[in-house]
């Protein structure tokens, strides 16, 4: 899992690539204006980047709070989210600042990633989390994992697993390669 700190430009490019398979200024403007998932993640990244600057942080936080309300989400921008992050639908998604999400993660709407007993999930690289899934507690979701729609995961998940159901059960080890688009190859 990539834990290193990346520049804001690098993160935005990686997120843009995950949505489109290419990066250009024209695509950036189009997605910033019309693609709700990219727009939300962009303002989340900018709010986190400028959080320690008392003067500049006001505008990014206001924009982030605006889109947080518009998309009825409760995502904390201070969470550690790796490069190549894709949210195709933002609505009703929630996670706190102590959550760690690796590179090339895809999260769709209605997902809850929450702590339990003051311990929070760690989600590794190339993970796809489907609609309405719930990930709870101080667990680790391995690399290349798929968590199916409405699955409730409260235990560690090994690499390449496909998890479905409530409670979540591993049904195969086919991994997330068929669920992910435009994987960002980071340095």
TrEMBL record:
Record-linked Gene3D superfamilies: Hexapeptide repeat proteins
CDD domains, sorted: LbH_SAT (cd03354)
GO molecular function annotation: acyltransferase activity
Listed Pfam families: Hexapep, Hexapep_2
Keywords tagged on the record: Acyltransferase, Repeat, Transferase
Coiled coil: none
Family: Belongs to the transferase hexapeptide repeat family.
Protein name: Serine acetyltransferase
């Amino acid at each position: 899992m990539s834990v290193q700190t990346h520049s804001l430009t690098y993160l935005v490019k990686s997120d843009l690539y995950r949505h489109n398979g290419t990066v250009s200024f024209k695509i950036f403007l189009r997605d910033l204006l019309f693609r709700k998932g990219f727009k939300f993640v962009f303002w989340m990244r900018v709010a986190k980047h400028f959080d320690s600057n008392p003067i500049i942080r006001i505008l990014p936080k206001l924009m982030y709070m605006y889109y947080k309300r518009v998309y009825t989400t409760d995502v904390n921008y201070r969470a550690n989210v790796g490069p190549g992050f894709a949210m195709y639908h933002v609505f009703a998604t929630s996670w706190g600042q102590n959550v760690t999400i690796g590179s090339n993660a895809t999260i769709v709407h209605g997902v809850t990633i929450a702590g339990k007993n003051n311990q929070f999930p760690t989600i590794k690289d190339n993970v796809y989390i489907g609609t309405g899934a719930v990930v709870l507690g101080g667990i680790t979701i391995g690399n290349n994992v798929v968590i199916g729609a409405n699955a409730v995961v409260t235990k560690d998940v090994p690499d390449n697993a496909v998890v479905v159901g409530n409670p979540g059960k591993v049904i195969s080890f086919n991994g997330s390669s068929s669920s992910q688009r435009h994987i960002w190859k980071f340095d």
